[in-house]
Amino acid sequence: MGIPLVSNKFKKEESQLKTMLNEYSDLIDRNSFLIKDKIEEVKKEFETLFNFVVVGKVKAGKSSFLNALLGIKEGEESIFEVGPGPQTSKITIVRKGQGNVETRGDMVTIYKDLDSLEGIEIIDTPGTDTIMEKHEKITRDFLENSNLIMFVFDSKNIYTKSDWELIEKIIKDLKKDVIFILSQKDRASQEEIEMAKKELINRCNKIDLKDPKIFLTSAKLEIESKPDSGFQQVRDYIFNEIGSHDKKRMKLKTIIGKIRFSVDQNSNILNEKIDELEVLERYYETLNAFLGENHSFFNIRFDSINDAIKNYYLNKLTDLKDSILNFYKTQKKVKENIEYEISQFKKEVSKTLNDRITREILNITDEEKSRINRFFDKKEVVDRLGIDPFLREKLKLDVDKEFIIFSNDLEKEINKILDRTFKTVTFKNKNLLNRLYISRSVQKRLDNEISNQMKALENTLKSNVESFLNSLQVKMQTSMFENYEAFKKEINKLEHFKDLKERIDGYSRQLEDIESSLNSKSF
Question: For residue 40, with 0-12 CB atoms within 10 Å meaning exposed, 13-18 middle and 19 or more buried, which class applies?
């Protein structure tokens, strides 16, 4: 319904572009680190309709002209009221829509489902000779923001002073494009029309408007679908100037260019963030792999140390038992001999174990240093770190630094473990020192005591070593990562950034597809 003034050739592409732009804008809103510069401006440009402001004095035929321009035919409902006197003192805006009407102060917005309103809005102003002061200001506000001004004259009368004062202001002050409509040509003679055209050109020349665009129209002939109404020439001008296929395509391509610039900007931002986080991730994964290997290595080595300590300790306890049993057999100074033997046992065991542990620590640190070098030569580590010398050197320095701290801590911690362990070495059964205690009972008591001692030793070693290894893991994580949890949280953003990058790249491909479609459609 209605006669289109703007090309609908790229309606599908326009709809796709608008949907994509809204989705892209929402994505930026949800990710504040992305740049939104110009997007709101592009959205506004996209949604801004091409507007015509129609100006003319009362009875100049503005309403009839507009109804006819939009394709309203005889018997159909008019959009703009037509009557003998002024029909409204308000600004009337007509847009494409579902038939509702909105009134706000001095403005009325009418929505009509007409093809001729696709992509445009028409603004009808009160008559120039009846505008009140506030209407004059509102009218001029619209004039300043118009794309095309249509000044409507009655073909018989173009001489009103207020009309030409406004035209001069539009041309000189606002520097807007104006076309002149000599309406109701069916009511004027050819002589009157020629005189009006001549006078209009003369007056335009006086205000430095050369070659004015003048159209002779008859709304009556157009509405009655009769020939020579002059409206086809007006529509052709509008279409060629602002609504042609080519101009519509250029507008969409300009918008595509601006969106693409923003998409490329944000794609670069995401590339930088992804590259940065991938470096952190490689560091994090490599270091975690190292710490995991460390933990396994220490577990194995400490299991070996624990076994050596327990075997040695069991052998020494067995020797102690044999000595004690021998004292009972001889019945000589049993109490004194047992106390002395236990005291010597503690000294020897403590010294021997400390010597052994010292050697073990040296062995562990030597193995650890060699293991670190082998770790960095592993294919999976080399592949993960890639060719980035900075990342490899940073990780190596961090590990070497931590190794020195680890070596000192290891010796201190094992000595603490041994101190806590040997506090349990005591034969608490006083009956062991009683000379009259029968030998078989003593042996049973000794075997129980040895069993208790070994369980206590094993439990103490196990809990202390586990505590040490866990604290070592946490300490190394904290030392190397500074803030381990924050580091993990930052790396967890990587997948989000990769997903964003994929979506941004998808928008870039959509823009290419839409632009390709624009270019492939022939006129």
Answer: exposed
Residue pair 253/260 in contact (Cβ under 8 Å)? The answer is no
pLDDT tens-digit map of 34-54: 998 778 888 888 777 888 889
Please tell me the distance from the alpha carbon of residue 24 to that of residue 240, in angstroms, as a whole number. Answer: 32
Residue 83 sits in a domain whose CATH number is 3.40.50.300
Give the count of beta carbons closer than 10 Å to the beta carbon of residue 350: 15
Let me know the angle formed at the C-alpha of 136 by 188 and 205, rounded to the nearest 5 degrees: 50
- pLDDT, tens digit, for every residue of 433-478? 444 444 566 677 777 777 777 777 677 667 766 776 676 666 666 6
Tell the burial category of 137 from Cβ atoms under 10 Å away from its Cβ (0-12, 13-18, 19+).
exposed
- The encoded tokens of residue 303 equal 């299991």
Burial of 368 (0-12, 13-18, 19+ CB in 10 A): buried
Instruction: Print the domain residue range for 79.
Output: 50-243
Cα angle 299-305-310, degrees, rounded to a multiple of 5: 120
Instruction: Note whether residue 314 is domain-resident.
Output: yes
**293 found inside a domain:** no
Look at residue 256 and tell me if it is in a domain.
no
Tokens of 351: 């010294």
Amino acid at 363: N
Q: In this structure, is residue 186 part of a structural domain? A: yes
What is the Cα–Cα distance from 426 to 429, expressed in whole angstroms? 9
